[in-house]
Amino acid sequence: MTKNDVAMNNEIFIENEDKANQYAAKCLIFVAAIVGMVWILNAIDFFIIPKILMNIAMPISIALLLLPTLLNKVIGGHKWYLKYLIMSCTILGITILSMMMTLHTVLAWLCPLLISCHYYSRKFTGWTLAGSVIFMTIAIFGGLYVGLWDSDMMLSMDVGQERIITASILIRTLKFYYLPRVFTLVALSPICFTLANRTRNLLKKQEQDNEEKQRVSAELNVATQIQVSMLPSIFPAYADRAEFDIYATMQPAKEVGGDFYDFFSIDDDHLAVVIADVSGKGVPAALFMVIAKTLIKNHMQAGMTPAEVFVLVNNQLCENNEVGMFVTAWMGVLEISSHHFISVNAGHNPPLLKKANGSFEYLNLNSGFVLGGMENTKYQQAAMQLTNGDELVLYTDGVTEATNVNNDLYGEQRLRSVLNDSIGLTPDALLSMIKKDIDNFVNGAPQFDDITMVALKISEG
Question: Which residues form a coiled coil (predicted)?
């Protein structure tokens, strides 16, 4: 066990010990109330214990049982000895009660043992058992001289009401009263030992699980920061370019994936747009995303065609890819002056295109294999001519695979329908409309994939 584990366990059980002290004090208030009722019943002759003895013993027993409440308030916080003081008060209070009512307080001796279980310590439960046996001995044999008369133990009395204790009475008490009660207490103790030990182990396991959850949460936060920091986030992105308008949004999921988008100028007349989705979750996916995004941008800015870039990036991602991660990606390059557009697809969701006077339709062009999936894969480019007013919407599968509480998918048809109902909006307003519709659809259901979208609109220069 490491030092961190020891510190963690100490902190857990210190906190539990404080709660157990408070719980024990509350339980003993209830026991003290019962002792008070016994005292009152004896005062009205329900029991036949000498009132003088009861008037001395019962206040002491009640005071001992209430003392833990005062100790908790006065000492407060965590003091290692507090639980021993509380248990000592418990045992002494039960001892005095048992001396007065030897015949009726057998079950009362279970009280200290049961309270000790809440400390989740076999050692403390063992200490409590030993103390209970010792003071039970004192109570039983002391009860021969004081307290409620037990005709089964006491065989004779003198005329002056003086109790006669003989050797045979002591032996009888030992055989038929003391040993059976001790054996009963000891026989029940394994249950308390097992309960204390099992609960202690469960508490350790729970804390370890919490530590693991915190570690995973921290890892996901790092992954989210990596993911978000790599994406263009300043809009409008090209305020000085009237030929086009572009906007993008990405909402990380509860379990961080590897979605990313990018857009950048290759030169003054060419704009590259990329959207991709890395397999896997967490930090590994985020790091793989950083590599893929960097490779695509670097090779594209080196003057290669989109297809050539994907071929090269695919081969580089396949190298030393022992975990088998891959990327679905789509990239397009817009020649700003002519609105000529070329694109390449590596297993990604088809984008939606709206011509100036038409509606949004899916671009079902040839799609190649995913990046990082197989070496020497070839990719084909597709070319098209865009005109003023044309709009292109890119997205990842987190959009179409968003699910509601009934596990229904958002779907491609709903996405297209929402887009066609939102014609005329700017790219940022368009994506906001889609996001709002997704939120309405899922209705609070947790999403486990990133929701990423990019919108590009061609305008007159």
Answer: 196-223
Q: Tokens in use for 42?
A: 């004896």
Chain centroid offset of residue 294 CA:
35
Query: 96: number of CA atoms within 13 Å, CB side?
Result: 23
As for how many domains the chain has, the answer is 2
Residues 190 and 262 in one domain: no
Nearest CA among 116, 56, 49 for reference residue 88: 116
Whether residue 181 sits in one domain with residue 155:
yes
* Domain, as residue range, for 122: 3-214
Q: Are residues 257 and 321 in the same domain?
A: yes
**Cα–Cα distances in Å, from 154 out to 145, 245, 246?**
10, 104, 101
Alpha helices in 145-178 (DSSP H): 167-173
Q: Which two tokens stand for residue 26?
A: 């509350």
Q: Which residue has the tokens 């045979």?
A: 168
Q: Which residues of 156-169 are buried (b: 16+ CB within 10 A; e: fewer)?
A: eeeeeeeeeeeeeb
Residue (of 89, 44, 87) closest to 65 by Cα position: 89
Q: What is the rounded distance in angstroms from the CA atom of residue 16 to the CA atom of residue 292?
A: 49
Q: Which residues of 419-457 are buried (b: 16+ CB within 10 A; e: fewer)?
A: beebeeeebbebbbebeebbeebbeeeebebbbbbbbbb
Residue 351 tokens, joined: 């984008």
Tell me the pLDDT tens digit for each residue of 57-66: 999 999 999 9
- Give residue-wise pLDDT tens across range 373-411: 999 999 999 999 999 999 999 999 999 999 999 999 999
Q: What are phi and psi of 30, to 5 degrees?
A: -65, -45
Residue 219 lies in a domain: no
Task: Specify which residues 371 forms β-bridges with.
Answer: 327
Q: Is residue 225 a part of any domain in this protein?
A: no
**Shared domain check, 288 and 175:** no
| CATH number of the domain that residue 433 is part of | 3.60.40.10
Identify the three-state secondary structure at position 368. Answer: strand
Other CB atoms closer than 10 Å to residue 56's CB: what's the count? 14
pLDDT at 265 over 90: yes
Q: Which of 231, 223, 228, 210 is nearest to 255 (CA)?
A: 223
Cβ distance 343 to 330 under 8 Å?
yes
Domain contains 336:
yes
Tens of pLDDT, residue by residue over 213-251, are 888 777 777 777 777 778 898 888 888 888 999 999 998
CA distance 458 to 390: 5
Which helix (DSSP H) or strand (DSSP E) does residue 455 occupy? strand 451-458
CB 456 within 8 A of CB 427: yes
Contact at 8 Å (CB) between 403 and 409? yes
Cα 268 to chain centroid distance, Å, stands at: 51
